[in-house]
Amino acid sequence: GVVLAIDYSADYAIFNLGRGQPQNVSLLIRVLEAELGRRAVIKRRPLPAGDVAVTFADTSLARECLGYEPKVSIKEGVRSFVKWFKRYSPPELPQNFTYVNIEPEEHPGSLGIVA
Fold first, then answer.
1. How buried is residue 59: exposed, middle or buried, by Cβ count under 10 Å (0-12/13-18/19+)?
2. CB 113 within 8 A of CB 41
3. Are 29 and 78 in contact (CB under 8 A)?
4. pLDDT tens digit string along 69-90?
């Protein structure tokens, strides 16, 4: 989808390149846990005012203009991202910046996620 959008000839266009169907955050967390080999620390919060309970990408313009058809499932996409992320080398930072590893103190070795 991204390559099709880059190659599309237009002065200006916005394309949604999602799956076109709602995805469950719980599924995303379970897939991340499985791929990272870590348990998520989940702190449930009320939905913020004005936020919507369900949302998904309207891919109709991408389908019409680009012939876009999503092919990658959420599981495949997360698996591919985690593989890439584990190989990723962060760029050199200026001397006045520092990378920090943030883990919840009460759950060392876990992945902290607020949902």
1. buried
2. yes
3. no
4. 988 888 999 999 999 888 887 7
